[in-house]
Write a structure and sequence with these properties.
Layout (H helix, E strand, L loop, with lengths): L3 E7 L3 H12 L6 E7 L6 H7 L6 E4 L5 H11 L4 E4 L5 E2 L5 H6 L6 E10 L2 E6 L7 H6 L7 E4 H7 L10 H11 L5 E12 L3 H4 L2 H12 L4 H10 L6 H14 L1
Helix pairs in contact: 1-2, 7-9
Length: about 250
């Protein structure tokens, strides 16, 4: 059976860490390992890790250089075929067999599932994906790490997260993945996790890091992507469909 590595990184979020650990340990009858990387917290997080030490496969509590340094340490400690990042505060849906459902569908390099969006303890939305994500989709939408499985071999082939980025290292990694022609990806309309709105990725100036990444990796096609983005609101326009039809006809 495909083995899953669930990686949780934490820094001074004891409440969120306890919530995530309980969510993961609620899973039954599945083959997974659980890795917790703590950044030398001082808020009681270490006590929580110790409390569950018998059920956590591997843990460490030491200073790190930020989110992606911690995530990379988790990757390096992992022995699973697929990795899922459930950081402090992230939770799986209340279904003790949801990882079994996921395991049965882990074939492609990147396998994305839906996740619910939560605000003030209320579900306010649901993040979905197109069935076969593409480079343009990553540029436009990206993935939520709480509901996206990454094949370990992809990190081995393309490298780990770029630790120079504070909050957009995952975006840079997705771009690298989809620039590699052999990368495969698929999504399923099954909600498996809950994403809490209002975190660092929502409140920080992530746009500036995105622009740096796009300049580095997408400089030759960014203008085309921006044009495609501008045309999206008109994708169901009869006129646009006729234009596309004429373009195809002229190419023949």
């Amino acid at each position: 059976m495909t083995k899953i590595s669930i990686i949780t990184i934490n820094f001074n979020d004891a409440i969120g860490l306890n919530k995530t650990i309980k969510s993961v340990l609620n899973q039954t009858n599945t083959d997974y390992e659980f890795i917790v990387i703590d950044g030398d917290s001082t808020d009681g997080s270490k006590t929580i890790i110790e409390k569950y030490s018998g059920e956590i496969t591997y843990s460490v509590s030491e200073k790190d250089n930020g989110i992606y340094h911690a995530m990379n340490k988790g990757i390096q400690a992992s022995k699973g075929d697929y990795l899922l990042f459930m950081n402090s505060g992230d939770v799986l849906v209340n279904d003790a067999s949801i990882l079994i459902v996921c395991q049965e569908k882990l074939v492609e390099d990147i396998v994305a599932f839906d996740c619910f969006l939560e605000n003030d303890d209320q579900i306010v939305g649901r993040r979905t994906h197109i069935e076969f994500p593409s480079l343009f989709y990553v540029y436009k939408k990206g993935f939520k790490h709480q509901s996206t499985f990454i094949k370990m071999s992809l990190f081995q082939k393309l490298g780990l997260y770029n630790e120079n980025y504070k909050i957009a290292g995952d975006y840079e990694f997705w771009i690298r993945c989809f620039l590699e022609p052999s990368t495969t990806a698929k999504s399923y309309a099954i909600p498996i996790a809950i994403f809490k709105l209002g975190g660092i990725s929502q409140n920080s100036d992530w746009g500036s890091e995105h622009r740096v990444i796009e300049k580095e990796w997408l400089s030759n096609i960014i203008v085309d992507f921006q044009l495609m983005d501008n045309l999206l609101p008109y994708q169901n326009s009869r006129i646009l469909k006729q234009v596309i039809k004429l373009q195809k006809w002229f190419k023949k």
